[in-house]
User: Fold these one by one.
Assistant:
Number 1:
Amino acid sequence: MTTKIRIAVLHFAHETVTFLKNDTTLSDFIYPGSPASGEALLKAYPKSYMGGFVKMAREFDGVELVGIESPLWPKTSIGSGWVTEEAFETFTGRMMEGLKAEGPFDGVYLCVHGAMAVRGTARPEAELARRVRAVVGPKAFIAATFDLHGNEDEQFLKHADMGFAVKYFPHYDEYLQGERAARMLVRAIRGDYKPAHVTIKVPIVSATVRMWTGASPWMDLTQRALVWEARETDVYVNVFFSFPFADVPDIGITIQVLTNNNAKLAAEVARDIAALAWRKREALLTSTKIHSIAEGVTLAKQAIAKGETPVVLADHSDRSGSATFLLREIVAQELSGVLIATIADAKAAAKLKAAGARAGDPFDMEIGGLVDESAGEPLRITGTILNAVEGHGQFWVVVKFGRDNVLILSTYLVQVMEPFGLRLLGLDLDAFKVFAIKSRVHFRKGFDDNGFAKTILLVEPDQPFLGTVHLDALPYRNVDLKKFYPYGEPDFRA
Ligand SMILES: [Zn+2]
């Protein structure tokens, strides 16, 4: 007979760009389907951490999962700033009530991101773990999954027992880490795994656009972690690359190693990877070339002339989705055969929808810009509507203009991670030589890692704005950049 195991499941995730003006509010987390509890929570995100966790946990006999009422990702996704105190306190308060009402539990799974930033709470994931621990008691095991962009230090594992972060950017292994968290939680509850961990902070901070794990040197960090997991049984390694657009005290690279009751081994592995990161610090910060927008468009023209197409022109810095700088330059330099995906403009999209816009209609509007200075000025586009459809909670208008260029207007920020979904809008991908998109690294999934694009050009405006690689231009209050490479000369020895 297998002893029955009861595991509570909680979700609270956001990647907060604290430099955005719009707070992430209580109402942003409330919409049809969110908050979710019971089976609805367990079925949320079936291909991500949650799906992997639930699938694996249910492969064990006698495991009962209890979905405690939790908010899903906010409506604003990653396009909103500080999470309000009201939102954090309301949801964590209800989670604790749920844990008390449904308990006792042998284990708790926390499905978090790691880069949530909350007004008045410096380390929200650690605070969540602290509160959960206070309710479930010292004997229960607490395990979490994280995005590698988490801003974490040793605080989380003071209250929780285990954390499992994705290793790849793009994040290919979310489901896998969810499975892992479930298996290790069950093993720990059964007394088969005694978590011993070590955390080391490495004083390196980088913009996310540089962190692609498909190439060195970021790939080397991933690879080294995988090697340790392969050569030692029961070793798990988290390399948090960190998310520098959250103004919180625990940014910077963090190495976390988990072993089965072997603190010495955990320290050895953590030191090894921390030392590797430190050795490679210069390459980590310089290996990805970022062009000015004018330079990027000129290089795209040269790539077309040499037949090195398709080209990806990615404005990595646009955090609102409404920026017009790249579009303006494409028009100014008379680039042709370009698909611009997308310019977000909620007002224009609503106006077109209300007017019953459809294929064949002439198009003449000022679009984009304005939402903040980083979006720039609106740009007048004249052309013909090829398609206008409702989908995924947005209104999409496809406009042909200029010299065989096509622009997609959307309601909200759209990060195009792979080209093939664009066919749903009736587009023939072969017709384009250039894809002008808004993405930092996730686009590599469908444009680069698979060999689709022949030329990749990352661009940002000169200004610099809030999504910039020039972190020293950002108004940090809770971070002293001089304590981090490359903005100071921290004294670090792993
Ligand atoms: Zn991430």
Note: The pocket of zinc ion is lined by residues 147, 149, 171 (CB under 6 Å).
Number 2:
Amino acid sequence: MNNPPDLNQLKQFAKEVRRDIVNMTTEAGSGHPSSSLSAVEALTALYAGGIMRHDPKNPHWPERDRFILSKGHAAPVLYAVLAECGYFPKDWLHTLRKLDSPLEGHPNMCKLAGVEASTGSLGQGLSLGIGHALAGRLDKKDYHVYVMIGDGESDEGQIWEAAMTAGKYKLSNLVCIVDRNDFQQNASTAEIMPSLEPLADKWRAFDWDVREIEGNNLEQVLGALREVKGARDKPQCLIAHTVKGYGVHYLADNPANAHFHGIPLPKDQLAQALKDIDNMP
Ligand SMILES: Cc1ncc(C[n+]2csc(CCOP(=O)(O)OP(=O)(O)O)c2C)c(N)n1
Ligand SMILES: [Mg+2]
């Protein structure tokens, strides 16, 4: 891959990804813009910030780093980033959720090169990541495996089976990013599953290294992802504190309203949303 762009270029990349997300979900009339927007900085840093070793022209390159979007309902952020990186033509974004489009509502690895795992049924992606991480160790390859899970998704028992297993095998080539946006489908995580906290302690108890970061702060995300690359004996957890809908006031200022999970922007809000994104620092 080329040298990573500077911070300003990366911020422009993130803005373009946000525009793509609101445009494609509004056009589709369905999808999860708020869940996608909270994850923009993490995927920008991974794919465009020089963290992941990958080649859009050779998506099945055996040496590539792997990214698995376990919270698969945030597919629009993955599609936007893959398109901006050149995995497929950008105008495919207009086909989101349309019949026969490879850009299904949830990522389908059989339909779209660049999608590492088919996800959407919450709870499974970290286990899939463990498979890749163990395979990399067996094959003596030095790739890293990055998995993003949701905080609501963390209610799934399989997440904790995976956490325990990765700790046992000391998978230092595995990084789990928790998109800690404090909301899930119908309400806040505090209402639905208050015992999720203390979250960092739970990961530590399963023998992971844990860092808590501001997940919509690109510099912090980049810094943390660079640090965890050097890990030697433990899997790495980044708890990324984010805002659901970040960058678009209509969504971000109303996250407590369950109406905004899995609902596209009303068409008459699109112009203001694009202005909000333009005005981001
Ligand atoms: C096994 C399973 N149960 C339920 C759902 C429905 N569902 C989709 S998104 C979601 C909420 C996820 O919340 P969170 O993980 O916090 O993601 P966020 O959108 O906040 O990033 C639910 C319950 C699902 N996709 N899979
Ligand atoms: Mg959430």
Note: The two ends are 27 Å apart (CA to CA).
